[in-house]
Write a structure and sequence with these properties.
This protein is mainly alpha-helical. The chain contains 23 helices and 5 strands.
Length: about 550
């Protein structure tokens, strides 16, 4: 961790005495305040059972590491994710016990560490006021807020990547390289950030050698080609060492074949790349009310810079070469995640989000007299987006919709465990894991399950052809479908979603019951999501016949 916050020496920051424009705040104090605020805000969420990818991979993999010491999970198929973030969870379980509250508190520490990096980075390139506002805006953004307590590796990778950028901006290259190497051990895709920065430096080195761009304010500081190559190659070699170990243990380099097919091979269709790029651009500019911030920054550009006092100098901007650095990282991640990643999840851009926030907040502060009110409106819009779902399908983990999902599934799982613990339950992932693995927090006993791909009509019809395989069916909404979808009148869009992003329509409970030949014995709805338990009539008739026979 860096020492007391230091000045960047940015010539655009104004001519005020350094002691006046850069008050010293110790990072430990800032970290304590950030963690306390996060803990208080997340207190109602800390005991929630694990959600979706948490339950499906990250928690089982970390639990395997805790119980066996193996870096390769055995209770779930390995996705080849590096083990650093999983080791962090296993360490806290070893010290404090295996509970969801310990897991989520450990992740809040990582989120606070990431926010401290946002604060330090913004402080380094701008002012204290911009740093405070940028940190608050980032913390309250729905995707960051929801991910702060979730057991995913993306927050750890973002925190380490942001700290590496702090050291890079402070011109502490050795520390930056080391932290980037740690970042790729948290998640392999973190390698994109140092590679983009290193190639950006090499590009300008080539231009300078040719006598071009010597006076450009967008150019990064002069760096030796060897230093740029080290920035690129050290994280790649670190990741390569992990992949070599993974291959030696499993026979696969990039994870199990299904994982590689879904996240790489199936994503390289040109039309899918275009659609994924459109999604990524929306996620980094407008998603979950982010448009409030970006639109305010765009409008601010129409105003001249405000002055520091009646006779003071104009407020300084972030140096153009630092803005260019941020833009390079954002563009690299947006393009990379348009090429790979089966599900276009917003959490993949957690490293880029704070960089955009810092630039936008700095622009608003520099040019708008009422900038605190504008930032307040942005923050209020973000908090509303915690609870109010957008008028289009979105990933449940991007706001508190994931809490609704977990509460619905925990209630249904409790009902099944109490009254149908020995009956075979037809359901889809991740409910198959929720019912069969008590350590995920949904049940106290394992319930036998019959797996189903999803709750689309073809899947349910196929299951109905052999009803002897299951006794009950647990059906649920696998995604949020808004009552007034903005894209409902664009059938071509939905065809693209089904073809390239595995989108499907879940049959509603009543229709599912008709297809399966059963009746609904439990149903609950919560903020646009639903879950239902269907008793199969064949089984009920057999029980009734048995009761009659026993009575005779």
């Amino acid at each position: 961790m860096a020492g007391p916050l230091s000045p960047s020496g940015n010539a655009d920051a104004g001519d005020l005495p350094r002691a006046l424009r850069r008050p010293r705040l110790h990072p430990a104090l800032v970290f304590a305040l950030l963690f306390t605020a996060l803990f208080i805000l997340h207190a109602p969420l800390l005991r929630l059972p694990y959600f979706w990818d948490e339950a499906g991979y990250y928690v089982p993999a970390a639990r395997d590491l805790l119980l066996t010491g193996s870096l390769i999970p055995h209770s779930t198929a390995s996705d080849a994710h590096p083990p650093l973030a999983l080791a962090w969870l296993a360490l806290w379980w070893k010290l404090s016990g295996y509970t969801p509250a310990v897991t989520r508190t450990a992740m809040l520490l990582v989120a606070a560490f990431a926010l401290l990096a946002v604060f330090c980075l913004a402080r380094e390139v701008s002012r204290l006021r911009v740093a405070v506002a940028s940190t608050a805006v980032t913390a309250l953004y729905p995707v960051f807020f929801a991910q702060s307590s979730m057991a995913h590796v993306d927050m750890a990778a973002a925190a380490l990547s942001l700290w590496a950028m702090v050291f890079y901006v402070e011109q502490k290259r050795g520390r930056s390289v080391i932290i980037f190497c740690l970042a790729v051990l948290a998640k392999e895709t973190a390698v994109v950030v140092p590679a983009a920065i290193g190639m950006w430096e090499l590009l300008w080195w080539v231009l300078r050698r040719r006598g071009k761009g010597k006076d450009s304010r967008f150019a990064p500081g002069a760096a030796r080609p060897a230093a740029s190559c080290l920035l690129i190659l050290a994280p790649i070699l670190t990741l390569g060492a992990w992949y070599a170990y993974h291959f030696a243990r499993t026979g696969y380099v990039f994870g199990n074949p299904e994982f590689f097919q879904y996240n790489v091979r199936a994503t390289l269709h040109p039309m899918r790349i275009v659609l994924a790029l459109a999604k990524r651009l929306w996620q980094i500019t407008g998603y979950m009310n982010l448009f409030l911030l970006t639109a305010a920054a765009a409008m601010a550009m129409a105003f001249p810079p405000q002055r520091e006092g009646p006779d003071g100098p104009p407020r300084g901007r972030i140096a153009l070469h630092q803005q260019a650095l941020f833009a390079v990282v954002i563009a690299a991640q947006v393009v990379f995640y348009s090429l790979v990643g089966g599900a276009p999840l917003a959490r993949y851009l957690l490293t880029s989000l704070p960089l955009l926030v810092i630039i936008c907040v700095s622009t608003i502060w520099r040019r708008m007299r009422q900038w605190p009110a504008i930032i307040g409106i942005v923050c209020a819009g973000f908090v509303l987006a915690w609870f109010i779902n957008p008028p289009y399908p979105f990933t449940l983990e991007d706001n508190l919709a994931y809490r609704d999902y977990v509460l619905l599934h925990k209630r249904a799982a409790g009902l099944i465990a109490a009254h149908h613990a020995h009956e075979r339950i037809l359901t889809a992932w991740p409910a198959t894991d929720e019912l069969s693995h008590p350590y995920l927090g949904y049940t106290k006993i394992a319930v036998p399950v019959v797996p189903l791909d999803d709750f689309s009509a073809p899947q349910l019809l196929a299951a109905a052809r052999d009803p002897s395989q299951f006794d009950l069916a647990l059906v649920f909404s696998t995604k949020y479908e808004p009552p007034h979808d903005l894209f409902r009148s664009f059938p071509l869009w939905w065809r693209w979603q089904m073809r390239f992003f595995a989108y499907h329509h879940d049959l509603p409970p009543q229709a599912a019951a008709q297809v399966l030949g059963g009746r609904i014995i439990f149903r609950e709805n919560r903020n646009g999501q639903w879950i239902a338990l269907i008793a199969i009539e064949r089984v009920e008739n057999a029980r009734l016949t048995q009761k009659v026979a026993d009575g005779n």
